[in-house]
Amino acid sequence: MYNLETSVKDHDESRQGEALILxxxxxxxxxxxxxxxxxxxxxxxxxSEIVASIMTNMGFETTSDYKExxxxxxxxxxxxxxxxxxxxxxxxxxxxxxxxxxxxxxxxLGCMAExxxxxxxxxxxxxxxxxxxxxxxxxxxxIDQVDDGNRAVNVLLSREETYADISPVRLNSxxxxxxxxxxxxxxxxxxxxxxxxxxxxxRSRDAHSIVNEAIDLYAHGYKEVTLxxxxxxxxxxESEDKxxxxxxxxxxxxxxxxxxxxxxxxxxxxxxxxxxxVLYTMAKYxxxxxxxxxxxxxxxSRVLDIMNRTYDRxxxxxxxxxxxxxxPDCAISTDVIIGFCTETEEEHAExxxxxxxxxYDFAYMFMYSERPGTLAAKRFTDDITEEVKKxxxxxxxxxxxxxxxxxxxxxxGQTQRILIENFSKKSKLDYSGRNDKNATVVFxxxxxxxxxxxxxxxxxxxxxxxxxxxxx
Length: 472
Ligand code: SAM
Ligand code: SF4
Fold this sequence. Notes:
This protein is α/β, with parallel strands linked by helices. Helices cover about 35% and strands about 20% of the residues. The protein has 15 helices and 22 strands. It has helices at about 5-10, 40-55, 80-100, 110-115, 120-125, 140-145, 195-200, 205-220, 250-255, 275-285, 300-305, 315-325, 345-360, 375-380, 385-410; strands at about 20, 35-40, 60, 70-75, 105-110, 130, 150-155, 175-180, 185, 205, 225-230, 235-240, 245, 265, 290-295, 330-340, 360-365, 415-425, 430-435, 440-445, 455-460, 465-470. Strands 1, 2, 3, 4, 5, 6 and 7 form a 7-stranded mixed β-sheet that branches. A 5-stranded mixed barrel has the order 18-19-20-22-21. It has a 3-stranded parallel β-sheet with strand order 8-11-14, with helices on both faces. α9 (about 250-255) runs parallel beside α10 and α13 packs parallel to α15 (about 385-410). The longest helix has 24 residues, at about 385-410. The two termini are about 25 Å apart. Bound molecules: S-adenosylmethionine and iron/sulfur cluster.
């Protein structure tokens, strides 16, 4: 079956609420246990690794069981209301344990902490610590404050913080694929979006620290890195003496040159910023995966205008044409918002016709959820009824299911280079990996090859969401 759950909910549904486990730092062990779980986008999971790195340096040991923790951290997401509801429910579960274990510390991290600030302490009595995404270096001081019997808050946003010098520890990863955060924040102010308020101004991380992190991962056997940012195409870094200037195309090139066996992916591209220079760089390197996540949000120029996306339907179509011209076989995925304020039936039909035009390989689809404090919440009324939103949403989903399946069918009979990532979720007799286009491919285990190796797979059939083949 097509994985509806994954495509309509969040960026990686299988990881929501995942606990991060690290090897204890035996030299510094302070005898206290940390439980940290994360929600939302890949950026949050990457941040949790930074937090865990700071905490293990303080002597904390991680645990996968919150009931035995001394400190519980929940790294939160605010992007849609249901993401926040999920965190509130989880806090209730933590509260039940804390009632029996009063010395336990509960900290809320990330976007919800930033959005609600000290109001969180008023609303959720069990919370001791509220810390925004730019304040993690302050954790030792804040934990001391809580140890002294106070409640602590730091939600200051920064114009400079990129945590460039804190190497994230990735001990519970698969050792094959990793995310590298290349920038933080966002300056775009899309009217529906809470991110500029919760993550602050856009800033790019030192290019050397990014390349060094990728080199280090490669040296430790990693075979794929995904460069992460809210708008990677506006990555821009220059050295203090202004002699070195790196934009996203040149950063991609620097990372691609680390080794031909290191695959490079990136996310997210903004249609207004993705340049032909980036597309030509992708085309030039075999190890830069031919896959672009290009969120359209709506197919209607009027809706895009009130969303403040700063491109229109024609601009988006032109960008898609350029991708197809420069890389005819490049996969494209997208994000769609359904039922934004004042969206008419004709405008909804334009979103469907845009989907027909691009025939996306994959899409994340969301019903509009008004977020307090955003431009849309201030300027417009969330006037599309739930019933209409749901009907339009279902139309978008069924069209996307059809397109995703068609895109997979086109690949039957091809021999593709697959990076083996793991055993398949369903059977230890099968391996699972991804192709260049980011599609999941499942094939029988062959003892000559291990996870972390590349193999050539003949694609023989597919389900609506997965390619199936055999190693040749
Ligand atoms: N920076 C990326 C971009 O500009 O496309 C996306 C970042 S956002 C974390 C991921 C997706 O969440 C967005 O592309 C949008 O489709 C969706 N989203 C953001 N705010 C939303 C809202 N208020 N209601 C529904 N979906 C929303
Ligand atoms: Fe939000 Fe727009 Fe920034 Fe993406 S580009 S994070 S949708 S404001």
